[in-house]
Write a structure and sequence with these properties.
alpha+beta, Nucleoside Triphosphate Pyrophosphohydrolase, 2 domains, seven-stranded mixed β-sheet, 3 helices, 21% helix, elongated
Length: 176
């Protein structure tokens, strides 16, 4: 039987989207381990299948890496918002598509050594095109790709966003 360590935290920084804490745990043997951890409310990413053979990715400028990346649409959970509602909202906001069917495929941690963000992966099908409702300052454009081309790009390094690589390859595995 494993003993759960005693954990204490101290907030170092609080922002609109996340906070940074120093987390200290005391293990059963009395040793102490300390680490700075980013606390995040969680997020969703959506694989929008335009039809059986085409997926809609977005070109999205990311300030943190100063690059425009090819990504699946995604977004942060709002307080009290179920992940499925976030997925529906973000799909419309970023692509303009509305999903007739939305299925939760998986959930995963992006970088659990430093970040507690849980990403919920959804598959969106039976899409209806509409107008996107992008937030001010977002530099996003839709990019519809053949499924095989999207998978090739996930494997050859063209796509560098982790959630997109995971989402595409997981869906590809499910399709086989």
């Amino acid at each position: 039987m494993t003993h759960s360590p005693h954990l204490t935290t101290r907030v170092l920084l609080e922002t609109k989207r996340f906070r940074v804490e120093t987390a200290t745990c005391v293990r059963a043997d009395g040793t102490t381990h300390q680490r700075e951890v980013i606390r995040h409310p969680g997020a969703v990413t959506v694989v929008p299948m335009v039809d059986a053979d085409h997926v809609c990715l977005i070109r999205n400028y990311r300030l943190a890496v100063a690059q425009t990346l090819l990504e699946l649409p995604a977004g942060t959970l709002e307080p009290g918002e179920p992940p499925a509602a976030t997925a529906e909202r973000e799909l419309v906001e970023e692509t303009g598509y509305r999903a007739g069917q939305l299925h939760l495929l998986h959930s995963f941690y992006l970088s659990p050594g430093i970040l507690d963000e849980c990403m919920y992966l959804y598959l969106a099908t039976d899409l209806t095109a509409g107008s996107a409702a992008r937030e001010p300052g977002e530099e996003i454009e839709n990019h519809v790709l053949d499924w095989g081309e999207a998978i090739r790009m996930a494997c050859d390094g063209t796509i560098r966003d982790a959630k997109t690589i995971v989402g595409l390859l997981f869906c590809d595995r499910m399709r086989q």
